[in-house]
Specification:
Pfam families: Glycos_transf_2 (PF00535)
Structural class: alpha/beta
Number of helices: 12
Radius of gyration: 19 Å
Order of helices and strands: EHEHEHEEHEEEEEEHHEHHHHHH
CATH superfamily of the largest domain: Spore Coat Polysaccharide Biosynthesis Protein SpsA, Chain A
Number of domains: 2
Family: Belongs to the glycosyltransferase 2 family.
CATH class of the largest domain: Alpha Beta
Distance between the termini: 52 Å
CATH topology of the largest domain: Spore Coat Polysaccharide Biosynthesis Protein SpsA, Chain A
Protein name: Glycosyltransferase 2-like domain-containing protein
Strand content: 15-25%
Organism: Candidatus Raymondbacteria bacterium RIFOXYD12_FULL_49_13
GO molecular function, one term: glycosyltransferase activity
Number of strands: 12
Helix content: 40-55%
Length: about 350
């Protein structure tokens, strides 16, 4: 008896000046045991010759060239919009896949019609016994981080439901994206996956973490690990996530949570712990204060647009305010834990 034909899956890889990563990434896609793949590279206006390199060395790969850097959401959305397959994988250019990764993701999602996405076990390329992200965990103030970040991979070997998949590598069901919409292009970079995850939760979709779907990741390969622009975008965008998605009671509580998180980040600055401690080793407290002020001011400037999007999300939500608290209980992280993680 012949095996049923497996559906074609589109792999969308976003690139911006990541020529040094293209060989590893694209070869790992071409080496997948899943037999029915098509690859699209969306280039965000690279100046390092990336599009020409792909054209010359990977002629079977479809290339979409943007004239400028449209950010993660803008670039990825162009790839998704042109996708005609029922399933798609988004992948960072600085990631490479275990040969069975996509096969494991597809086998899991095909068995659960309410699974709109699957998260892979993303391990740090530099320390492949350490987790980069096993899905994501979320905070009541809109912030999020990779689940299990910097923890031993042996602690994350069980398949389970998680909040959402990291934008580094995820398999999406196209019908989920048709239902909830695409990445918010106004974010430019960081927190787009968190925002998409809250919208998926509001519509009743779930995400499965598949530990056998392994990815190796150069963390922050396209941006520096700690930088003023990254700190600014993370803080601004987490405020936008909260304004756009959270019920009023959670917005109010999120302010108290933020105070606690800032306290622990101040502790991290003093004792060189967490990302705040990493930041202060390269920059000054004055830099950090200006970044936070700028992020809050810009988030307030963006608030009317976020409120407009919020009204639509709330009108289409299939869950009530109490459900958001349940989600945080299941998939949340404490202010201390996220503040002191590297």
């Amino acid at each position: 008896m012949s095996q049923p034909k497996q559906p074609l899956i589109t792999v969308i890889m976003l690139n911006w000046n990541g020529k040094q990563y293209l060989d590893d990434c694209l070869h790992s896609i071409q080496a997948q045991s899943y037999p029915a793949l098509q690859i699209t590279v969306v280039d965000n206006g690279s100046s390092d010759g990336s599009p020409e390199y792909v054209k010359n060395h990977f002629p079977a790969v479809n290339i979409i060239r943007n004239n400028k850097n449209l950010g993660f959401g803008g670039g990825t959305n162009i790839g998704i919009t042109g996708c005609t397959t029922d399933f798609l994988v988004i992948l960072n250019n600085d990631a490479s896949l275990h040969p069975d990764c996509i096969k494991e993701l597809y086998e899991a999602i095909s068995k659960d019609s309410m699974a709109g996405s699957c998260a892979s076990r993303i391990m740090l390329k530099s320390e492949n016994d350490r987790i980069d992200a096993a899905g994501i965990v979320v905070c009541p103030d809109g912030l999020a981080i990779g689940r299990g970040r910097m923890e031993p991979t042996a602690d994350y070997l069980d398949k389970k439901e998680v909040f959402f998949a990291s934008g580094c590598c995820a398999l999406f069901r196209k019908t989920m994206l048709d239902d909830i919409g695409l990445f918010d292009e106004g974010f430019f970079a960081y927190a787009e996956d968190t925002d998409l995850g809250w919208r998926a939760q509001s519509r009743g979709w779930k995400t499965l973490y598949i530990p056998t779907a392994i990815v190796y990741h150069h963390h922050s390969g396209s941006t520096s690990g700690v930088s003023p622009i990254k700190a600014y975008l993370v803080e601004r965008n987490r405020l936008c996530v909260a304004i756009k998605n959270f019920p009023l009671s959670l917005l109010v509580y999120g302010l108290w949570y933020t105070v606690r998180r800032y306290f622990w980040q101040a502790y991290g600055v003093l004792f060189s712990r967490g990302r705040a401690g990493d930041f202060i080793r390269q920059y000054t407290m004055f830099h950090l204060g200006i970044i936070l002020l700028k992020a809050w001011l810009c988030a307030f400037y963006m608030a009317p647009l976020m409120m407009k999007k919020r009204r639509r999300i709330r009108a289409e939500a299939l869950i009530g305010p109490d459900r958001y608290w349940d989600i945080l209980k299941r998939f949340g992280i404490s202010a201390r834990a996220i503040a002191l993680k590297s």
